[in-house]
Design goal:
Layout (H helix, E strand, L loop, with lengths): L10 E4 L7 H7 L5 E6 H6 L3 H4 L8 E6 L5 H13 L4 E6 L1 H13 L11 E2 L9 E5 L11 E6 L4 E6 L7 E4 L9 H20 L5 H23 L4 H21 L3 H13 L3 H16 L4 H10 L9 H18 L16 H8 L3 H4 L8 H10 L2
The chain binds nicotinamide-adenine-dinucleotide (NAD) and fe (ii) ion.
Pfam families: ADH_Fe_C, Fe-ADH
Cofactor: Fe cation
Organism: Halomonas binhaiensis
């Protein structure tokens, strides 16, 4: 085993009603004028009140201008609000979109150059602004990862800032925060979390630590996601999803994700599909492709899924896994096939040309891909 360096938010606060633990953290971090970064969906759902009700003793403000799959311009707008309001801390309350914006603002607000200087890996020099992340979806795991993803409308692609300075000071992961999620968001963000666990487990950079997190995350999510989708009020299912997505975030934040994510990015960038939906469309097809490289690892996934595989070969166990993934996506009503999203078949070569550039993720994938392989996977997923 090579040396690994495990990364997380500095403090994790989890469990039912963990949201009520915000105030001591605000005090501990010395925030007097925090800016709460969220979006209108979270605000209007009433869930934000669980957070703002604890902030009456400080001079807080709310920025609710985050949009799903947020664009670079939102970082600029939100940073303006932060600077002109002379805020001294950030509290992200939302899905991956709000958390990613808050992470960017935390490093950009004290950067004296343009935002684009921070794109890529390891370009951020410092962060002095305290940052608390409270996810309302289950979820992206962004509360514990060192990456922020933004959409670039001009270049029609997704861009990222990767830096350990993005890791929040505190992550508060509580099931009551996701109870108001619309069904489609529960489904898409839940599949995203499962993909994080699976891709981390199959990653070339998996370690025994990320394996333990990833397999437990798979076990929790495969059972809880259909339940949370079928009954949003099911707090036990919400808690299992919250814990599962956090563990998946810790796993992929350290082992990385692979070809599912690499091929999903161009779909988000060009056709604005929700991140979890893009992943769901590609997941079974990339799994079919990866099987050849590491079929024994698929057996580990089948065990986490609770499949009865004692008398099966590795190949048969892998087939069970892929069938179960198809069924999960159907159960949570994510349409199968890129064609369901008005993506023209003629666009597949361009999508493949975009995806092959995502070397940052493709290098984690257990089976190597060349351009023709990627195009073939898009065709299979069409
Ligand atoms: N940084 C990372 O590590 C990481 C990992 C995966 C994905 N992402 C990014 O995260 C984004 C997707 O995030 P997401 O899937 O969490 O969705 P999201 O943050 O885009 O939210 C989707 C919709 O759900 C609504 N919503 C969220 N929580 C709600 C709640 N509790 N009640 C009512 N409405 C609610 C929002 O208002 C929004 O309209 C993408 O931009 C993706 O690229 C980042
Ligand atoms: Fe993801």
């Amino acid at each position: 085993m090579t040396v690994s360096n495990f990364k997380s938010a500095h403090r994790l606060i989890t469990g039912y009603q963990a949201s009520s633990e915000l105030w001591p953290q605000v005090q501990r971090l010395g925030m007097q004028r925090p800016l709460v970064i969220t979006d209108r969906g979270v605000l209007q759902s009433g869930t934000l009140k669980l957070i703002t009700d604890q902030l009456n003793a400080v001079d807080y403000a709310i920025y609710d201008g985050v949009t799903p799959e947020p664009e670079v311009a939102i970082v600029e707008a939100c940073t303006d609000t932060f600077r002109t309001g002379e805020h001294d801390g950030l509290i992200a309350v939302g899905g991956g979109s709000a958390m990613d914006i808050a992470k960017c603002v935390a490093v950009y607000a004290q950067h004296d150059g343009p935002l684009h200087e921070l794109f890529g890996e390891g370009q951020v020099r410092q962060r002095n602004i305290p940052l608390i992340a409270i996810p309302t979806t289950a979820g992206t795991g962004s509360e514990v990862t060192n990456i922020s993803i933004l959409s670039d409308a001009e270049q029609q692609m997704k861009k990222g800032i990767v830096s350990d300075h993005l890791l929040p000071d505190v992550a508060i992961v509580a099931p009551e925060m996701s109870q108001s999620c619309p069904r489609s968001v529960t489904a898409a963000s839940g599949v995203d979390a499962l993909v994080h666990a699976i891709e981390a487990y199959l990653s070339n950079f998996a370690t025994p630590i990320t394996d333990a997190l990833a397999t437990k995350a798979m076990e929790l999510i495969i059972r809880a996601l259909p339940k949370a989708f079928a009954n949003p009020e099911n707090i036990q299912a919400r808690e299992d999803m919250a814990t599962g997505s956090l563990m998946a975030g810790l796993a992929f934040g350290n082992a990385g994700v692979g070809a599912v994510h690499a091929l999903a990015y161009p779909l988000g960038g060009r056709y604005h599909l929700a991140h979890g939906v893009s992943n769901a469309l590609l997941l079974p097809h990339v799994m079919e492709w990866n099987k050849l490289a590491c079929v024994e690892r698929f057996r580990g996934i089948a065990v986490a899924f609770g499949e009865p595989i004692d008398n099966l070969t590795d190949d048969e166990a892998a087939e069970r896994v892929i069938r179960r993934l198809h069924r999960l996506c159907a159960d949570v009503e994510i349409p199968a096939g890129l064609r369901s999203f008005d993506i023209p078949e003629s666009a597949l070569p361009e999508l493949a040309a975009e995806a092959i550039k995502v070397d940052r993720l493709l290098r984690n994938n257990p089976r190597k891909l060349v351009l023709a392989d990627i195009e073939a996977i898009y065709r299979a997923a069409y």
